[in-house]
């Protein structure tokens, strides 16, 4: 008011976005994006909201026409129901008016950046479901069900709409370039090619494709791993900063025995003497079992005798890459 300027963002939202800038030193885009989204998810208390409740609230508010536009007042009504329910279960953690304001602010930033005051019903659903808590494959199932037709099958257009709405979440954080840009066409093509270009796919085919972590969606499974790793304690010591036990992600070398790295050293690209960044590592978001320890030990033994050439020739694909905006055919749809 004093500066006589207009701002779309709630002051708390501005603080949150400024705090996300600290994460820009994370070298890997999928992790950087997922950690930012995790911070956002917790600030909006959506990490307390389960998928089933989200789905019930949509039914309660009769949000069945996905192509319809919904105004701000109706979005507020829906969010108020969600957060009032959460407040009953988590009294000290949920401040209903603040959460409604913040979540509305976020939804409009993601799906109505021009502030027309309306967003598509489907965008609202996909935004809230993506950040709800639940098992990863259950989330894929819910997202698929949201866009599938009455036959519970999904065509290229429907999958395109789902991926388009989902990619807006990293896009709003300025993190879209690494996921193939805003062009979801190559991802749609990759999913249908994997299923012999049939006109429609089933939920199982969709989940099988998502398990390969396609580039445009890789931030979602990584978000789930980030959440799982938060409280994990590993009985190991970081060879770089000497943190012990390692909390969060643990990275174990598959080239050197007893070489472990904590997440902050790994994300910032620090290494100890004699260990190169291109050496294979295995990631654990929960403490290892004895079976995994034995398996890693045998891999280290094999890798001990492998040359630099072998690692250059066999790069490990972390996810299914899709063509970027600059390659591929012209947009068909």
Automatic annotation (TrEMBL):
The keyword Ribosomal protein appears for this protein: no
Entries under Pfam families matching the protein: EF-hand_2, EF-hand_3, ZZ
GO biological process: synaptic signaling
Signal peptide: none
Annotated ranges, domain ZZ-type: 233-289
UniProt-annotated location(s): Cell membrane
Classification via SUPFAM superfamilies: EF-hand (SSF47473), RING/U-box (SSF57850)
GO CC, alphabetical: plasma membrane; synapse
PROSITE patterns: ZF_ZZ_1, ZF_ZZ_2
Membrane-topology descriptor: Peripheral membrane protein
Alphabetical UniProt keywords: Cell membrane, Membrane, Metal-binding, Zinc, Zinc-finger
GO molecular function, one term: zinc ion binding
InterPro entries: EF-hand-dom_pair, EF-hand_dom_typ1, EF-hand_dom_typ2, KCMF1/Dystrophin, Znf_ZZ, Znf_ZZ_sf
Protein's UniProt name: UTRO protein
Organism: Pluvianellus socialis (Magellanic plover)
């Amino acid at each position: 008011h004093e500066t006589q300027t207009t701002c779309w963002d709630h002051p708390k939202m501005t603080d949150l976005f400024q705090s996300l800038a600290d994460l820009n030193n994370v070298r890997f885009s999928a992790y950087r994006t997922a950690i930012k989204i995790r911070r956002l998810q917790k600030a909006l208390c959506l990490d307390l909201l389960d998928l089933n409740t989200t789905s019930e609230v949509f039914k309660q508010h009769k949000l069945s026409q996905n192509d319809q536009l919904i105004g701000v007042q109706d979005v507020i009504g829906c969010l108020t129901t969600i957060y009032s329910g959460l407040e009953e279960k988590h009294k000290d953690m949920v401040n209903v008016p603040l959460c409604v304001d913040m979540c509305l602010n976020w939804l409009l930033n993601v799906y109505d950046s021009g502030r027309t005051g309306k967003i598509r019903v489907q965008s609202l659903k996909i935004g809230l479901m993506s950040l709800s808590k639940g098992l990863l494959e259950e989330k894929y199932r819910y997202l698929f069900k949201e866009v599938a037709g009455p036959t519970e099958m999904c065509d290229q257009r429907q999958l395109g709409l789902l991926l388009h709405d989902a990619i807006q979440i990293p896009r709003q954080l300025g993190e879209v370039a690494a996921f193939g840009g805003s062009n979801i066409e190559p991802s749609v093509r990759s999913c249908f090619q994997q299923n012999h270009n049939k006109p429609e796919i089933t939920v199982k085919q969709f989940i099988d494709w998502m398990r390969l972590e396609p580039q445009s969606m890789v931030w979602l499974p990584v978000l789930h791993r980030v959440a799982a790793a938060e409280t994990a304690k590993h009985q190991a010591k970081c060879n770089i900063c000497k943190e012990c036990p390692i909390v969060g992600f643990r990275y174990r070398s598959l080239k050197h025995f007893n070489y472990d790295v904590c997440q902050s050293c790994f994300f910032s690209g620090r290494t100890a003497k004699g260990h190169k960044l291109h050496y294979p590592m295995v990631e654990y978001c929960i403490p290892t079992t004895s079976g995994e320890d034995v398996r890693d030990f045998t891999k280290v033994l094999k890798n001990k005798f492998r040359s630099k050439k072998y690692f250059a020739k066999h790069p490990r694909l972390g996810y299914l890459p899709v063509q970027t905006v600059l390659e591929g055919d012209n947009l068909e749809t």
